[in-house]
Each structure stands twice: as C-alpha cells, then as structure tokens.
Design brief:
Carbamate kinase; 364 residues; Archaeosine Trna-guanine Transglycosylase, Chain: A, domain 4; alpha/beta; eight-stranded mixed beta sheet; five-stranded mixed beta sheet; globular
C-alpha cells in the first residue's frame, strides 16, 4: 500500500531574511523535519517559494521589483540558488531533492495532469523528495498560479495527499491581523461549513513573497473540496510537521469535505483568473442549477468584460448574483452578437454551447 502523502508548502518569508537572502537555518530545520517524516513512512512533497527573493539578493538589487517581466527574469537567477540550499540540507540526511517546475496548464490539460502525477509519483517511489515551484520564468501573467499556496493545494489533489501543510511566519489563522490588533485570537479549527472561511484576511505579507493569509484560505478551500485537510502553522515552531501529521494543535486545521470536485472543476472554481461575466435569464439559471445542463446562447442576456475561448467567467443570474463559474467556448465579441438566439438561429459552424456542463461549476 502506498505511503501517506504530505504536501508541505513553505513561503518566502519563512525561507529568507529581511534582505531576501536565503536563510540556510530555516531550510535546514524544515529538511530535518521532512527527513523525520520520511523515516516514519510518509511520502513528502515540498512546495518551496523563495526563488524571486533569492534572485533579488543574488543580483544585489536594493528592493524587490514590481513589474512581472523583471520578476520572472530574477526568478531564473534565484531558483538554482534555492535548490542548492535544499540539496545541501536534505543531503545531510541522505535524501536527494528533485526539482519540478510547474505551470497551470499542467492542471488544466488532462494529459499534462496525469503526466505530472506519474512523474511525481515515480520520484517518490525511487526515494527522491520533489521540490516544487511555479515556473515563474516562463509563465505568462495571464495564466499563472500567482502564489504557491494554490499550487500546493492543487498538488494535494493531484497526488491524493492525506494532508496539506502551509507553513508561514504566523501561528495560523487569526480573527484579525495579530501584528496590528492586540485582541486578535488564534482560530484552531475550521469546519467545512464554518463562516470563518469568509474572513477578509489580508493579502499583504512580509513584502518578500506573493501570498498572504487570503491566499492560504483559498488554498485551504481548494484542498477541502479535494477531500484533503489543511493545517496553517508557523514554520519556526519546533516539530511543526510531526505535530500537524499527528493532529496536534500546532496551528489552524481545516476539515476536508466528503464531496470532492475533479481537477478541472477545481481549477475553474478556485484557481483560474475570472476574465469576465455572462448574465443569464431565470430560465437558464434554473436549467443550470436544477437540471445540470450546458449554457446555450438563448439563455444569455448580457456579456461583461473581454474574454477568449477557454477563459473562465462568472455566470450571473437576474438578481446580479454570481452563482456559477465556467470555461467558455465562445469569445466575448461573438457571444454579444448571438446572445438570446435559439440554437437553430446560430451562424453555421458555431459551437452550440457557451459553457459545456462538464466545464461548469456551481459556486459553493
């Protein structure tokens, strides 16, 4: 029987100092704990941020740039330095790290999704420790994960993990930002129906990374809908990984849902960038919700934004509330021309479905 799999994501703020220089002690500590889990029979996959911050320090830049093209270039300089640190730290335990850089298409395309699973599974079988990061150097700004929290959650689904651990520089999810609110208290447990999941957590972090607590909440939601529990905890806490695996109160634990979404629908519901919106009449809304049909042009009453074939859009009912998300087959300019038309009145050769039911997700 395959070993239980744990996905460990560690953020930039936990791997680098205030100057952005890689903290070898922090990587050494996590490597020690990864080795302990391996010794206890667990497969461990590490999702490691820090390439951009390491590149900033290596190139001697005074501060982290803000334009995407420069950030992508810098990541290419920082990634080998980041891997060198993991190689040294894991090597002390006789473990071999294996770098894998992923792009969103690896989760959207079924063949790529299965290929990624096979490759990572084989790496675990031969005893390597996969070290995952987004391929920042080549990912386009329009199609990218945006942060490694969501990447970790999607990997948890892909590899059927038993636990996702998001390590950060806070002790978990608080009722407010503890750095500015002395009354903030730690939330130790979040149920699948807990309204705490809608807390307006801040996106800002240390300034050295791209995430924040909001992205971790999104990741916890993705993992929950994958049937995988999540723990958000402090990377500096002694024995944090062993404690998380054992179910000890080491941070905030999110329960997993029994009902699971497939990989493609997970991407549409939680991870894809929303490019626009399609408004529908009440008849179409009922057909989508109750009969699980595809969305046809006849039910469309309006189009918002500019989007192309394959983009993700919100589906909005007559009351102005978005009740679904879907991947469109028709670009926005063409959809505006055929909105409200019956199938028999569509131009020759035009696809009949605006959104196929297999690419439509009702929002939870």
């Amino acid at each position: 029987m395959a070993a239980s799999r744990v996905i460990v994501k560690i953020g930039t703020s936990s791997l680098t100092d205030e100057r952005g220089v890689i903290d070898e002690g922090a990587i050494g500590k996590i490597s020690d704990e990864v080795a302990a889990l391996r010794g206890a029979g667990y497969d461990v996959v590490v999702v490691s941020s820090g390439a951009v911050a390491a590149g900033v320090a290596a190139l001697g830049l005074a501060e982290r740039p803000t334009d995407v093209q420069t950030l992508q270039a810098i990541s290419a300089a920082g990634q080998p330095r980041l891997m060198r640190s993991w190689d040294t730290a894991l090597g002390r335990h006789g473990l071999v790290p294996a770098q894998a850089l992923l792009v969103p298409q690896d989760f959207v395309d079924r063949r790529q999704y299965l290929h990624a699973r096979r490759t990572l599974t084989r790496l675990l079988e031969i005893g390597a420790v996969p070290i995952i990061n987004e391929n920042d150097a080549i990912a386009s700004d329009e199609i990218r994960y945006g942060d490694n929290d969501r990447l970790g959650a999607l990997l948890a689904h892909n590899l059927a993990a038993s636990l996702l651990v998001l390590l950060t520089d806070l002790d978990g999810l608080f009722t407010a930002d503890p750095r500015i609110d002395a009354t903030a208290s730690l939330v130790t447990s979040v149920r699948v129906d807990d309204p705490l999941l809608s807390i307006a957590a801040g996106r800002g972090g240390s300034g050295r990374g791209s995430g924040g607590m909001a992205s971790k909440l999104e990741a916890a939601r993705i993992a929950s809908w994958s049937g995988v529990p999540t723990v958000i905890a402090n990377a500096a806490r002694p024995g944090v990984l062993a404690g998380a695996v054992a179910g000890e109160p080491v941070g905030t634990r999110f329960e997993a849902r029994r009902r699971k979404l497939g990989a493609r629908k997970l991407w549409i519901a939680f991870a894809a960038r929303v490019a626009g919106a399609v408004r529908v009449d009440d008849g179409a809304r009922r057909a989508l919700v109750e009969r699980k049909t595809s969305l046809l042009p006849a039910g469309v009453t309006g189009v918002e934004g500019s989007f192309g074939e394959g983009d993700t859009v919100s589906v909005v009912g007559p009351d102005g509330t978005a009740f679904a998300k879907g991947m469109v087959f028709v670009e926005s300019a063409q959809l505006r021309k055929v909105a409200g038309l019956r199938t028999s009145d569509l131009p020759d050769g035009m696809v009949h479905e605006v959104i196929h039911r297999d690419d439509l997700v009702m929002l939870p």
